[in-house]
Amino acid sequence: MTRGWQITLDEASPRVALIELDAAALTPGADERGDVEVAVAYSGLNFKDALAFAGNPGVVRRSPLVPGIDVVGTVTASTDARWAPGDRVLLNGAGAGETRPGGLAERALLDGGTLVATPAGFTDAQAAGIGTAGFTAMLAVLALERHGITEGDVLVTGASGGLGSFAIALLARAGFTATAATGRPENAARLRELGAASIIDRAELDRPSRALESQRWSAVIDAVGGQPLATALSQLRQDGAAVSCGNAASPALSSTVMPFILRGAALLGVNSTLTPLARREHAWARLARDLDPAVVDATTRIVALEHAAEQAAEVLAGRVVGRLAVRVGASTASTTTATETEPA
Ligand SMILES: NC(=O)c1ccc[n+]([C@@H]2O[C@H](COP(=O)([O-])OP(=O)(O)OC[C@H]3O[C@@H](n4cnc5c(N)ncnc54)[C@H](OP(=O)(O)O)[C@@H]3O)[C@@H](O)[C@H]2O)c1
């Protein structure tokens, strides 16, 4: 038997429990591959995982579901020639914790064609600390680079969160000047340590905006959507670009066409879940090159598997700073330095 979280949607409220899971609970759907068995060391608590714990049917796409969109661990069996027992692997998304069983259980049956070798420079705890948030932040920076934007002032919204924190660190490392927009000014010192050159209050963006405002940003990495993104679009410089990554504020977007037709602005999208393998590998190679493991440790808090549900509620309430990695089982690379903190 395998210990793990299970979310069941029925007509009333969702049922959420940490239980001994049977084989059926861990088996992917008939049209999904599960050719690599992984002993899970760590998962994470992303915004999407928090929505799953709340029973959001847009995330909980099968019921019952083992949540956890991030999986970090060691291969124990494989019929995929790319992987062998003992290999350290990680997975971000690709349906895990949504359409198929995810990382918040001690064992996972994964599709070998979606796995990335965990970079040697990261412990399992650090790989989970980076997780989908850091992976997506890297994809956003890569999207800007593909668009030809390699320098200048970049606004990061939702800066205290996982995606925002890693975006700031990666932008600073790549030579951009990052401005952090946050609703929690008490985190300013931490955001400056990550590499933010300046901090603005989220309220500066969360107000009705004009079609075009003073040009401030070469680019925007946006984790929140809604009015803050609309305002940021109106402040893009000529030929600037905004990367839409999230909807922590709202999925709505009400803009005018003016930034696009008068300033040549671009709105780029990132969907980490469906990223092809070659781009996953490229992004993780860049993370290994550019992200100091000490920054990951400073950004990550490790929580015990038992506390995942209560910590998920904290994520939804907007009270978590940085990243939460969840210790699921034994790790083969557990030189963990991230602070272990029991929830208050
Ligand atoms: N596209 C993708 O593939 C992808 C991948 C990962 C995440 N995402 C999405 O990106 C978003 C951020 O993810 P995350 O894991 O970084 O979440 P997170 O750690 O919970 O961070 C979200 C941050 O957004 C800000 N925020 C929260 N509520 C807000 C509100 N009502 N108005 C404005 N800002 C608000 C907060 O930052 P401050 O306190 O600093 O303001 C919060 O720390 C989520 O919507 C998530 O679903 C998308």
Distance between the termini: 30 Å
**Tally of strands:** 16
Uncertain stretches: 334-344
- The number of distinct structural domains comes to 2
Whole-number mean pLDDT: 95
CATH class of the largest domain: Alpha Beta
Describe the global form.
globular
Number of helices: 10
CATH superfamily of the largest domain: Medium-chain alcohol dehydrogenases, catalytic domain
Taken in chain order, the helices and strands follow as EEHEHEEEEHEHEHEEHEHEHHEHEE
Q: Which ligands accompany this protein?
A: NADP nicotinamide-adenine-dinucleotide phosphate
Largest sheet: 8 strands, mixed
Per the CATH scheme, the topology name of the largest domain is Quinone Oxidoreductase, Chain A, domain 1
Strand content: 25-35%
Structure classification: alpha/beta
In CATH, the architecture of the largest domain is Alpha-Beta Complex
